[in-house]
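input
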Amino acid sequence: MIRQIFAGVALMAAFAAHGETLAEAWQLALAHDGALAAARLDTEAAQLESAAARATRWPTLTASGSFVQFGAAPRLGVTELVDHDNTLTGGLMLNMPLYTGGRISNTIGASAAGQRAREADETRAVQDTRLAVAQAYAEVLHAGRALAVADANVASLAGYRDEVASMFGRELVPRNDLLAADVALANARQTRIRTANAVQLARAGYNRRLGQPLDREAVLEPRLPPLAGDIGHEGVEPLIVRALALRGELGALEAQASAAGHLARAELARVRPQVSLGGGYSYLENSVLDREQFAVATLGVSWALFDGGAARRKSASLRRTQRALEMRRADLESLVALEVREAWLGLHEARSRVDATAGAVTQAEENLRITRLQYLAGLVTTTRVLEAESLRTVSRGNHDDAELDADLAVYRLARAVGEL
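output
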């Protein structure tokens, strides 16, 4: 706990010194996410349960003792069995299973499979957390870019309104042009207010995801960093093959099915002979026997000849559970393949949008410049100028959206493959 506190303080100091990177955001989120902490505890519990199952193979050593006070001690003829109407007994027994019909080995196998399932669930939770943080990070960047576009729109319309007001003062344009410019500027300012509020909401959601105060001001890097490897340029079929081997959800279902199979065999082992070897030392305080200390060795055999069919039915139930899990895994394989294909297509769509919108921004800027010059020369109406301003705003917003969507699509594809 002390190390975590110092690590958190060090991270906060580092964030104050430079822009917050996605890797640093991941560190904070992985340290504070409640669902991930629960998944880690589940994994630790499964590890302890597996260790407990393995321990059943070892001998057990049991110590016992008792003191008995009789109201009137029993006699053997005229001989007292115990002195002073009380007796003391004690013992130390060692017992080791020799044969259990596979009950112990299958219980160990079920616990090990359960541990693998919990570890796969933890891996899935880590990747889900990383993707959620990347999405929140991108939302903050998106909101910030939208605010920059809104600011530019307000500044441009304010300048245009001043030009129209000057021309109206010289009686070069009608009053309708000035009114239209005023309305457009008012609408732009309203949009800017809504966009600024969206920035605050995006930051609050991002900070909540990281376990930080909601009003924390964080300066983020302008783009999502590229992921290691070349996953964004690979074909979809090899990615699907990797996803089927790596996805934690598939591994968890496979391990759960294996655990159910082991438990089914363990249940059947309960109706097989159970053989154990024991040995120990006993003490019995008495006045009749020739000694009070005994060393003993035992070979025990037990066999449940009839249990009403409980073990067989329980085993059959677990077999059906195993089959159900196997069928769910087979169904999930097709869903995973679909998710990978959707993420792959989404990435290529976003990249195509980046290419398509890159030239539109420059063209919209030039269109607005020419339209305003034409307006000053009296060649076009104010409607054309406002349309050109709207086109510029839309093209900038579309390009920003496409860039951030392309960056985030790589992360979605990595998560779909199981490599985030």
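quick obs: Residues 1-17 have pLDDT under 50 and may be disordered.
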